[in-house]
């Protein structure tokens, strides 16, 4: 299946390269074909380390949007996707028998407190104008109903749209965990993998790209779009130079990204090639 549309993105990028090589062979445009977008910290890190964006003035990316109809592109200035980090929390204690819980540390209860209380405790510790999302995808510990385990492991993600908050989240999560577990007697270790920073769209890049797209495809082509708490490793490029991520309408009757029901409307490929080519030409002319 298409899964998240990256095969479509690759086809669009190849199409833009073909169009510009034929119509504007002397234009200063570089097309990046990047691997490993879905991993943390993402394949963009390797391309940055290899110097592929050192001499680039501006970057532009599209990501298909299954909620937006074909022929529309969603744009916004400022944060558009969230920073995305992975946390692994190991709660540990001496273990024991469930008939004598007073002689050990109830790690299942302690881990449950972490899962239930960490999100709210973080919300209360930060500026409410800087949203943060904490959610756990797995909790594992113990093998027998009458044995208190010595270790329970929780894994999840921490996300924010605020780049400054993203920088301090590792220490804040560590401090908050200590407070939650202080009275339980349980120890813990925190493996905080700071993965992908928020994508913050540059105003100039958005303005020039959308102006060119409107002129070529019509004023109704560009629409506003909301922020997403999903992560996007395009942010690794933006640590080096300015750029913008636009959402490319690809609705096909339902389905969300990364779901078995996602279907890419392939009519979006032609729109993406046309819009991308004219937007890049717009960015190369002052």
Query: Count of DSSP helices?
Result: 7
According to DSSP, the number of beta strands is 12
Strand content: 25-35%
What's the shape?
Answer: elongated
Average pLDDT score: 93
Q: Main β-sheet, in a few words? A: 4 strands, mixed
Unreliable runs: none
Domains (count): 2
Instruction: Please name the fourth-level CATH homologous superfamily of the largest domain.
Output: Zn peptidases
The largest sheet has its strands arranged as: 1-12-2-11
**Oligomeric state, counting identical vs distinct chains:** single chain
| CATH level 3 topology of the largest domain | Aminopeptidase
Short note summarizing the structure:
This protein has 286 residues and is of the alpha+beta class. It has seven helices and twelve strands.
Overview of the molecule:
By secondary structure, the protein is α+β, with helices and mostly antiparallel strands. The protein folds into 2 domains: 6-81 and 198-284, Aminopeptidase (3-Layer(aba) Sandwich), CATH 3.40.630; 83-196, Alpha-Beta Plaits (2-Layer Sandwich), CATH 3.30.70.360. 35% of the residues lie in helices and 26% in strands. It is built from 7 helices and 12 strands. The strands form 4 sheets. The chain has a 4-stranded mixed beta sheet. The chain has a 4-stranded antiparallel beta sheet with strand order 6-8-4-9, covered by helices on one side. Helix 5 crosses helix 7. The longest helix has 19 residues, at 107-125. It is elongated, with a radius of gyration of 23 Å.
């Amino acid at each position: 299946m298409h899964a998240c549309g990256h095969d479509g993105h690759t086809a669009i990028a190849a199409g833009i390269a073909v169009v510009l090589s034929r119509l504007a062979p002397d234009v200063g445009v570089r097309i990046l074909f990047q691997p490993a977008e879905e991993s943390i910290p993402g394949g963009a890190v390797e391309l940055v380390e290899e110097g592929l964006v050192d001499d680039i003035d501006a970057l532009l990316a599209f990501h298909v949007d299954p909620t937006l109809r074909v022929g529309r592109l969603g744009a916004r200035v400022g944060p558009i996707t969230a920073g995305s980090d992975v946390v692994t929390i190991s709660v540990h204690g001496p273990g024991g028998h469930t008939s004598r819980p007073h002689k050990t540390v109830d790690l299942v209860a302690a881990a449950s407190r972490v899962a239930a209380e960490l999100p709210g405790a973080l919300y209360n510790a930060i500026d409410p104008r800087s949203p943060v999302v904490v959610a756990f995808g797995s909790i594992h510990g113990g093998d027998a109903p009458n044995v208190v385990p010595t270790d329970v492991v929780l894994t999840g993600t921490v996300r924010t749209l605020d780049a400054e908050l993203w920088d301090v989240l590792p220490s804040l999560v560590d401090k908050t965990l200590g407070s939650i577990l202080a009275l339980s007697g349980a120890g813990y270790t925190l493996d905080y993998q700071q993965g992908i920073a928020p994508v913050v769209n540059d105003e100039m890049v958005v303005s020039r790209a959308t102006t060119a797209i409107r002129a070529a495809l019509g004023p109704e082509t560009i629409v506003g779009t909301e922020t997403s708490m999903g992560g996007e490793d395009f942010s690794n490029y933006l640590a080096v130079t300015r750029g913008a991520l636009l959402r490319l309408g690809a609705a096909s009757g339902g389905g969300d990204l990364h779901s078995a029901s996602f279907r890419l409307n392939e009519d979006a490929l032609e729109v993406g090639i046309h819009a991308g080519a004219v937007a890049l030409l717009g960015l190369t002319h002052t």
